[in-house]
Structure formats: structure tokens, C-alpha cells
């Protein structure tokens, strides 16, 4: 298993990638030097860039959420690995399907959490900007 965090490790979530995966979710294979909504790399980078605007205010929430995700994931990994080893002896194809389903869910859950955190940070930034540059006509 290899653990990968996209972008800055201090503001990233480590996702396990197991040997034997047959595919990644759409978007994991996209990314260039221009931001795009269909790139997983850019989803993580957007959150990290927002957090860097006021690291002390926004980083702790992101780090707590990702740490909780990683801890829960570690327990799920143990369960999946035990089941995988049992299945592999007699049904290697089912074991591979179990592995791929675990990976698909993990990748999607990491993206869902990142999207949620991005909206949370953006909402806090919007409020902070409004307090700093309040416009009475809005």
C-alpha cells in the first residue's frame, strides 16, 4: 500500500492506494497548470490555497477533519485487509473487487470531505471579508 496526499502534506489527506487497483475515479488522471473542476488535484489545491490566505484561522479545522478521516479509514482498512486475505485464498477475483470497491469509496469520501471543507473555509472567508469591508448596500 502506498499513501499519497495531494499538494501540501500539512493540509492534505493521505489516501491509501493498494497494488491491484484496476482504476482510479474520474478526475484523478486530470490536472494541468490551470485550475479545473474536473481535476482531483485541483480540488485539493483549491482548499489548500484558500486555507493559506489565513493559515492560523483555517488550517486547524481542516487538519482536524482530515485526521479524523484518516483514523476512521485506518480502522476500515484493517477490516478490509482481513476480509481480503480470507477471500483471496478461494476467490481471488472477489478479493480484487473488494479492494477496488474499498478504493473507490475511499477516493470518493476524501473528495466529498474536501468539497465540504472547501465550502466551510470559503464561507468563513466570505464572512471575514464582509466584516472587514462591509458594504451597506448589499
TrEMBL record:
Entry's Gene Ontology BP terms: proteolysis
Q: Which reaction does it catalyse?
A: an L-aminoacyl-L-amino acid + H2O = 2 an L-alpha-amino acid
Stated EC number for the protein is 3.4.-.-
| Keyword line | Dipeptidase, Hydrolase, Protease
Look up keyword Protease and say if it applies. yes
Superkingdom? Bacteria
The answer to whether the entry has keyword Hydrolase is yes
Q: Which Pfam families match?
A: Peptidase_C69
**Molecular functions per Gene Ontology:** cysteine-type exopeptidase activity; dipeptidase activity
Q: Which InterPro entries match?
A: Peptidase_C69
Regarding protein family, the annotation reads: Belongs to the peptidase C69 family.
Protein name as annotated: Dipeptidase
Task: Tell me which species this is from.
Answer: Salmonella enterica
Amino acid at each position: 500500500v502506498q499513501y499519497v496526499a495531494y499538494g501540501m502534506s500539512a493540509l492534505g489527506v493521505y489516501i491509501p492506494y493498494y497494488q491491484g487497483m484496476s482504476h482510479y475515479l474520474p478526475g484523478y488522471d486530470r490536472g494541468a497548470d490551470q485550475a479545473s473542476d474536473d481535476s482531483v488535484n485541483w480540488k485539493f489545491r483549491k482548499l489548500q490555497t484558500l486555507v493559506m490566505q489565513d493559515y492560523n484561522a483555517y488550517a486547524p479545522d481542516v487538519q482536524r477533519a482530515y485526521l479524523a478521516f484518516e483514523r476512521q479509514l485506518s480502522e476500515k482498512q484493517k477490516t478490509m485487509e482481513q476480509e481480503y486475505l480470507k477471500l483471496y485464498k478461494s476467490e481471488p477475483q472477489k478479493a480484487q473487487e473488494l479492494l477496488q470497491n474499498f478504493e473507490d469509496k475511499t477516493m470518493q469520501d476524501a473528495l466529498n470531505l474536501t468539497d465540504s471543507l472547501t465550502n466551510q473555509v470559503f464561507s468563513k472567508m466570505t464572512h471575514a471579508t464582509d466584516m472587514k469591508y462591509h458594504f451597506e448596500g448589499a
